[in-house]
């Protein structure tokens, strides 16, 4: 199994966001291939997240740190998960 299994991936999303749906599909595919668990969090369900990320969803967090937003850069995302 991949060493990346110890990594925490969270996608911060918003209902009705087409970019969020695309990012979730990409993250699901990539994490599935690498054996990495991931979750989603709705930005509108947390005032602090909404204040920080409201205009940038989807946002991808790896181990709680912002990795990227709006689109998944697959090569960069895979490299970050392999560390």
Automatic annotation (TrEMBL):
Pfam families per UniProt: Glrx-like (PF05768)
Gene3D superfamilies: Glutaredoxin (3.40.30.10)
Domain of life: Bacteria
Protein known as: Glutaredoxin family protein
SUPFAM superfamilies: Thioredoxin-like
InterPro entries for this protein: Glutaredoxin-like, Thioredoxin-like_sf
């Amino acid at each position: 199994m991949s060493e990346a299994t110890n990594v925490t991936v969270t996608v911060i999303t918003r209902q009705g966001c087409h970019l969020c749906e695309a990012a979730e599909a990409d993250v699901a595919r990539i994490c599935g291939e690498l054996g990495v668990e991931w979750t989603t969090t709705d930005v509108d369900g947390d005032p602090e997240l909404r204040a920080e990320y409201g205009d940038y969803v989807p946002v991808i967090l790896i181990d709680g740190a912002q990795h990227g937003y709006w689109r998944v850069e697959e090569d960069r995302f895979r490299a970050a998960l392999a560390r």
